[in-house]
Amino acid sequence: MIHTLLYIDPGAGTLFYQAILSGVLTVSVFYKTITTYIKSKFTSRDQEEKDK
Question: Do the Cβ atoms of 8 and 16 come closer than 8 Å?
């Protein structure tokens, strides 16, 4: 039974690896945009007005 759970079909495995790779590349390309967006969601508006 363990051997059947460890088997990855070549088509499904390729799709899985492609999805992981595209996610990593997307985060690496848009890292600054993503972090700026997350920081803007957690900072208060008072803090933003003080920074200006």
Answer: yes
What is d(CA 40, CA 42) in angstroms, rounded to the nearest whole number? 6
Band of pLDDT at residue 19, cut at 50, 70 and 90:
very high
Which CA distances in Å does 1 have to 4, 6, 8? Answer: 5, 9, 14
Question: Which structure tokens are listed for 22?
Answer: 């595209």
**Interval 37-46 mean pLDDT:** 81
What residue spans define the domains of the chain? Answer: 13-51
pTM for this prediction: 0.52
- C-alpha distances (whole Å) from 32 to each of 1, 2, 9, 26, 35 are 45, 42, 36, 11, 5
